Amino acid sequence: MKSYKTDNNNKAILSEQMKIIELIDADYRLLSIIMRLDIALPFGDISVEEMCRRYDMSTELFLVICRLYSDEEYTPDIGHLNIGDMLHLVRFLRASHRYYTEHLIPRISLGMQRVLASCERRQSDILLKFYEDYISEIEAHLNYEETSIFPYVESLAAGRADSGSTMARFMENHTDICDKIDDMKSVVIKYLPETCPTQQRCELLFDIFRMKEDLGKHTLIESALLAPVTIQAEEAARS
Fold it and tell me: Rounded to two decimals, what is the model's pTM?
């Protein structure tokens, strides 16, 4: 029996008073968010509000992130968010980068090596080059955020942003890294030889789908939260 409240569509109502164990029970994928924020187990019976206070996290922002991850139809209301909240968001986005580079990408790389071991040398070299090029693209994308976008947001929050830069300009140079992962997924499904063990192929696909979904949420958070709230702060600073 569910201990948390649901709406008319049987979706969990995420709130400050909700217990962390209820939050995870409502959507276990939210464990990924908690992990990136270095929140330690066990949770006991603490609420979302208590956890956020303990870990110096904006409760409202934490819930907005959880809703974006959990509800495909959710559209965030940024009216109550400010540039100070974006410092918390940047911390989360940086943690997401570490999750990709230290956990998810190495896991996919290992899975790719295992399946390519069943391919002929020529086929293996082609697929490996495609994969390595894509990983280089991801790393360049993350590096651009780390060296350009995030420092700009942090400077703006501190009241010392470069007047010659704007968030809109940064976002124009912000490439989409989600599309090409569909090509990699198709290669694994359609073109690997039958000699490739099904279990290894499926395990790799699970991780590729996870990466695609998470990168999509990562992009959504930046476009639906980071960019518009930062643009609001720019407009307020000019007025």
Answer: 0.88
